[in-house]
Specification:
single chain, about 75% helix, globular
Length: about 325
Amino acid sequence: MIPGLMSMENTLYLIAPGIFIFCLGGGLYLCRTKTWNYFVHRGFSLLAIGLILNVFRWLIPYWITRNPGPAEGFPDVVFYLLFNSDILFFAGLFFLLYGLLARLTDRLWIRFGILALLNIAGVFIPPVETASPRWNVILSNFVYVPEISIFQLFQWCVFPAAGYCFVKAERNASRKTRFVLLTAAGSGIVFLTVMFLLRSFGQNFEDHLFWYVDCNLWPTRLILLLCVTVFWTCLIWFLARLFRNEHVKDLISMVSRNLNRIYVIHWIVIAYGEIILFNKFGLTLRNYAFLIIAPIVVFVISVWLARVYEKARMKFNEKRHSAS
């Protein structure tokens, strides 16, 4: 593989999920409705979307090609493909958990204190495996189960909590640029300090940084990933302020509004694009031009389809309101 392309892929794997989940917490602070039943309803909605997505991106392609994909070697392929850990499952479970905490108490520090305790427990609990493969799939969405877990709730729940605090502090800061700059500097200092300590003790720094190798967030991994997430979020904050063109601002706003839709659409495009290009036309991943062009094409198609859906939904709502 092209070294530069591989480095870009590794960077995206490293930073993109953390930023997505971090911004999920920021959205909690910014959302207009903050009742516990809204969060619970939102959680169930995201879980349903995740389940439907797994049907279209894993199950149906498996029935077409008989290629088990991520479920290769698993005793119950259909069950695994349906409930395979996904970032939408994490988002849904987090909203459910946060809704229950909001029902329990109105005090924000108690909610975040419980989330912190769950996070500590998730980080220090040893890998979990039961005799039942199905139970392992279900548990993988909550705690770390080797070779199955990706975004386990108890290890990642600190990220939306941190995102909530970041957005709240940024909105209330009198000097926003100074606040974001100091936050970026602080995360960078912590990152470099942990890196120095790991190297001082003869540890392989890359093993602690690249979480996606086995998706287990042990303490140093969690700290490093949180620092990377905060730093890149601050960098994106500064970059966003550079865009003065109204068309660019509109595009960023549209992508932000339709992020979940774009995520779902891009997976479906990838799933059926693979069936067509790899199974029907025999294209291989050794085609470097394809590896460079494909992500751009997938992004453009996903954004365009999300925009088409948004416009169609707006027209439908307008007709419904005018009829009533």
